[in-house]
Amino acid sequence: MGRTADPEIAAKYKIEFGERLARYRSGLGWSQGQFAARLEISEWRYAKYERGKAEMPYWLLDKLKAITGEGLDYWVLGRASIRVFAKRSS
């Protein structure tokens, strides 16, 4: 029998992921619509991820990795890569 995720932890994850997504997008100077277009999803769907109202599916995380060059450690766990540190210091 599988374990069910704690709803509070799941909600916190979605909010933190959404905040990372919004910061990254903002840092690029992209609108939600521009980022959504690159991910090939609707702006409405993208906005739900930023607001922490939906969990991004794995297939879309793969697209996100390909577009940004950031790994799952950054997107899922919030572990900054060397590239993210370099962007902040420049």
Please describe what this structure looks like:
This protein is globular. The longest helix has 22 residues, at 7-28. The protein has one domain: lambda repressor-like DNA-binding domains (434 Repressor (Amino-terminal Domain), Orthogonal Bundle), CATH 1.10.260.40. Helix 2 crosses helix 3 (43-50). With 90 residues, the chain is mainly alpha-helical. The protein is 70% helix and 0% strand. The chain contains six helices and no strands. The protein has helices at 7-28, 32-39, 43-50, 58-68, 72-77, 82-89.
Short description:
The chain contains 6 helices and no strands.
Total DSSP helices = 6
Bulk shape:
globular
Question: What structural class do you assign from the helix and strand content?
Answer: mainly alpha
N to C succession of SSEs:
HHHHHH
The proportion of residues forming helix, as a percent range, comes to over 70%
Distance between the termini: 49 Å
CATH architecture: Orthogonal Bundle
How many domains? The number is: 1
The radius of gyration over CA amounts to 13 Å
What is the mean pLDDT? 85
Please write the CATH class name: Mainly Alpha
CATH domain topology: 434 Repressor (Amino-terminal Domain)
CATH superfamily: lambda repressor-like DNA-binding domains
The main pleated sheet reads as:
none
Tell me the fraction of residues in β-strands, as a range.
under 5%
- Ranges where pLDDT stays below 50 over 5 or more residues in a row are none
Number of strands: 0
